[in-house]
Design a protein that fits this description.
The structure is a homodimer. The first copy, chain A, is built from eight helices and two strands; from the N terminus they run ααααββαααα. A two-stranded antiparallel sheet of chain A has the order 1-2. The longest helix of chain A is centred in the middle third of the chain and has 14 residues. The relative contact order of chain A is 0.13. By secondary structure, chain A is mainly α. The interface between A and B is large, with 53 and 53 residues. Chain B binds a DNA duplex through α3 and α4.
DNA sequence: TAATTCACTTGCAAAATGCAAGCTAACTCG
DNA sequence: CGAGTTAGCTTGCATTTTGCAAGTGAATTA
């Protein structure tokens, strides 16, 4: 397999590389679903609420597999189904995801409750440990349920 | 001011909201330049190495201003020039940026040296404190210099 | 065996992006 | 003062990516 030459101008900046991997509107949502909602299948991502188009979903899954952020294995029970799962490289994005969540919850109007974010922010390590534990043990019980669309919203003062 | 209605399907999920703010290839690079390189002007962003098109740059700056992640103030010395600066909401993205940097440095081939990332990872709080300090004091000396394009690369084993 | 489900493709219109060129108000230099 | 230069954009246009609807084929269920 030839490497992507990409017309895109690359630098060795880590932030830049990260953005090349998942710097679009959908990749991180897929990773979120895998990480905190226990989703595994194409269908689950598709119905996740944000309404990703199937062609884009297919394309993103392929890219993430290519970059070894997720794996795709055929389901043992159902021959049609594929189970996607984060790799260790993928689950290592947990701190990024957590900080993203905390930032938005503190600075934007979101459906995350204050108490919830308080806990996240106070016990980062515990939240992360639990996330890693579920990943290792293939525990699919969601850490976060899907958030409802914005109706009643709340906001909190940032910590600093 | 009317709120953006946006055809885009929104949920109240914080991660989703974050992605709406800077989930594209360029916004976070602008934020990086403001945060760790001490850049302030249009011209500086334009020449930052990754080669953003001026129309896109203009558009992203406007969006970031609209969402109060950055401010734009006319330069006192030069009437043509505009100084962009992170707001407190913007500088609060420092932990996200740091985790992004650490992840890529650990899991992708980047120009960040091992020693450098080791320090970042070990002393997150100190790195963040220094970042906030520079922001508060308007200290423009860069924390990170621009990384060279990828030639010699190194990789490290992830911590966990 | 027929219908349904899953994980995709395909085709096409609409939007975003990349690229080059232009444009205007401020500067600088002589 | 006037000619050039610079900063920060905007415009036009071709290319790429996206969103949306409608398939497709293999596996499963009724």
């Amino acid at each position: 397999m030839a490497r992507k030459p990409k017309t895109r101008s690359r630098t060795g900046c880590p932030v830049c590389v990260s953005l090349e991997r998942f710097g679009d509107r959908w990749s991180l949502l897929i990773i979120r679903d895998l990480m905190v909602r226990g989703y595994r299948t194409f269908r689950e991502f598709q119905n996740a609420g944000e309404g990703i188009a199937t062609n884009v979903l297919s394309n993103r899954l392929r890219k993430l597999v290519a970059h070894e952020i997720i794996t795709a294995v055929p389901s043992a029970e159902d021959g049609r189904s594929v189970h996607y799962r984060l790799t260790s490289k993928g689950i290592a994005l947990a701190p990024v995801m957590l900080e993203l969540l905390i930032w938005a919850a503190r600075h934007e109007e979101t459906a995350a409750s204050c108490a919830f974010v308080d806990r996240m922010e106070k016990d980062r390590e515990a939240v992360l440990a639990e996330t890693y534990r579920r990943w290792e043990q293939r525990d699919l019980t969601p850490i976060l349920p899907p958030f409802p669309p914005p109706t009643q919203v709340q906001r909190r003062k940032p910590t600093r």
